[in-house]
């Protein structure tokens, strides 16, 4: 699949920053605030819930590529018709608290169904962190064979930081950083490291082999747009401090 040129460049440079409004967030006002913050803060692209109305809203507010996330392939069709630039199976973090698990076989089947419905759009797929690391790598390889153009890692909900500050931030991101490192060595497509990522750990993700990072709660939890813009700018600056030449050194 042909990658959007601006997104492809960002991946190649290890500077891709995806701001995530939330797979279950259908609050138009809240989504609009995050979209504006991502746009003004210098993010690379956005990830919003799979809702055609939200896609149209985001398109009015920004020229950034819009990704929509869902776990039901049929939801993607109307969103693509509304203008979505790429699609994402996942994130799964929102479902774990409900007791909903996504096993490898189901994620692979969702990928195949989605690709059959929409053969000509960039497709990102999240690898569930509930799998053992070697199983995550195996699944990522199968997902690429099934048509995934981007692999996304996760893991923030499985970590239990015991320290505050910098050490706690690293502990929080450890599962998704480990997945990004292992998977990026096994697949040729870009790997996006998401879930629990901060300004501290974003450069670590790139150094570990990721081509970009996805950040959601660190932006969504802020109570005003100016703070959200500042947070996005800080992430952009953090990514600029690491060189792709350090990957797998």
Automatic annotation (TrEMBL):
Species per Swiss-Prot/TrEMBL record: Laspinema palackyanum D2a
Any stretches that span the bilayer, and where are they? none
Q: What Pfam families would the database entry show? A: DUF561
- What InterPro entries would the database entry show? Aldolase_TIM, Uncharacterised_Ycf23
Q: What is this protein called?
A: DUF561 domain-containing protein
Q: What is the lineage of its organism?
A: Bacteria, Bacillati, Cyanobacteriota, Cyanophyceae, Oscillatoriophycideae
């Amino acid at each position: 699949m042909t990658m959007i040129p601006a997104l492809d460049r960002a991946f190649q440079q290890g500077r891709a920053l995806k701001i995530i409004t939330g797979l279950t967030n259908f609050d138009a006002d809240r989504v609009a605030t995050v979209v504006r913050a991502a746009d003004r803060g210098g993010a690379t692209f956005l990830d919003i819930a799979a809702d055609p109305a939200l896609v149209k809203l985001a398109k009015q507010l920004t020229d950034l590529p819009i990704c929509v996330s869902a776990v039901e392939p049929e939801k993607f069709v109307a969103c693509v018709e509304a203008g979505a630039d790429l699609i994402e199976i996942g994130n799964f973090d929102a479902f774990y608290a409900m007791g909903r698990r996504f096993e490898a076989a189901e994620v692979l089947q969702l990928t195949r169904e989605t690709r059959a419905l929409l053969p000509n759009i960039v497709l990102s797929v999240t690898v569930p962190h509930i799998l053992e690391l070697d199983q995550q790598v195996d699944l990522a390889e199968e997902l690429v064979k099934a048509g995934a153009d981007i692999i996304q890692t996760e893991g923030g909900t499985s970590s239990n930081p015991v320290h505050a500050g910098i050490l706690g931030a690293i502990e929080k991101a450890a599962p998704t950083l480990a997945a990004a490192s292992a998977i990026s060595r096994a697949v040729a497509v870009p790997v996006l490291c998401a879930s629990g990522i901060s300004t501290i750990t974003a450069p670590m993700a790139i150094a570990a082999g990721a081509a970009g990072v996805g950040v959601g709660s660190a932006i969504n939890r802020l109570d005003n747009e100016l703070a959200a813009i500042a947070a996005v700018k800080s992430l952009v600056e953090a990514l600029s401090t690491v060189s792709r030449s350090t990957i797998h050194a």
